[in-house]
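Notes to self after the Tuesday call (sharing in case useful).
The group wants a holo model before anyone commits to mutagenesis around the pocket. I volunteered. Ligand is WQD. Logging inputs and output together so the record is complete.
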Amino acid sequence: MGKILVTGGAGYIGSHTAVELLNSGREIVIIDNFSNSKPIVLENIKKITNKDFKFYELDYLDREKLEKVFEENKIEAVLNFAGFKAVGESVTKPLEYYYNNVSGCLVLLDTMKKYGVKKFVFSSSATIYGIQKSTKYVEKMKRGIPTSPYASTKIMIEQILEDLYKADNSWKIAILRYFNPVGAHESGLIGENPKGIPNNLMPFIQKVAIKELKELTIFGDDYNTPDGTCRRDYLHVVDLSIGHIKALEKLESSENGVYIYNLGTGTPISVLELVNTFIKVNNIDVPYKIGKRRDGDLDEFYAEPKKAKEELNWVATKTLEDMCRDSWNYIASKKD
Ligand code: WQD
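Result:
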């Protein structure tokens, strides 16, 4: 068995997936340039799993350094987590997002092709659906109008992967459309800790809970939902990570092709429901106020998770309480 290359493996989703890969007996190689992560994460992956792995500090855009990884290791599949992922930031830094996410993925795919590595798992996002007739997203829906450069990069790469397979049907590709990943490993050793003021809801709640930020602003309570706040499909990052193991197994046991899956719980949760669950489960105060709407937010969207259940034998098992408890446990015990 060859090794699994995990790009961006020191990042939030990458590190949790690295843990699950090691726990399932896989040999992995991690590459990361620490643009959105820290070296301590690698030590914590080893602490959690009691397993070792090779690591290369490099930018996957650096073709020469990337080829060295393929020269020195028998890579049999690649999981790509090296994309930048802040929607708001992508609006102010479009070139960085297109360069890192799209050009980086092209360099990675071309290098894989050169070394005959044809199994690829791509981190896509529910944001590729944009506005649809139904707020319950199904994989067969057409990709929508991108609402940010971040969304555009995900749509472009999905298109690139489909075109790549049409030209060369020796590839096996899984496209995983994440809904809203939240939470942290139960050990509290790894989790989400974005630099600066968080864009996303859960990291913001965490910073208010540890009193790093004063209060949460809920962006609007006049949406067309039961309590007026937006509804999303929050899913525990460990469930999401296990979805990658299932996708890899699917590629290993299936015909060549492009396989697309929603990874979500299928249950929409409102901002107020999430905030109040976090407060209740952790018995901690999270002061908040209602502010005006944030541009681009949809009233609600959530996954139809049937296809992943039927074809990957994957379902999200962790509850909203687990997500809130693990998020708090991580941020409250953070040392670095
Ligand atoms: C969730 C809800 C906000 C912050 C995006 C991307 C998606 C994924 C996750 C990368 C919304 C509200 C938020 C705050 C708030 N990105 N909110 N106050 O926008 O659903 O999804 O991020 O993987 O691909 O599309 O996530 O966490 O930013 O917002 O009221 O301070 O929380 O309005 O309704 P979103 P989010």
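Two things stood out.
The longest strand covers residues 119-125.
The CA atoms of residues 206 and 328 lie 6 Å apart.
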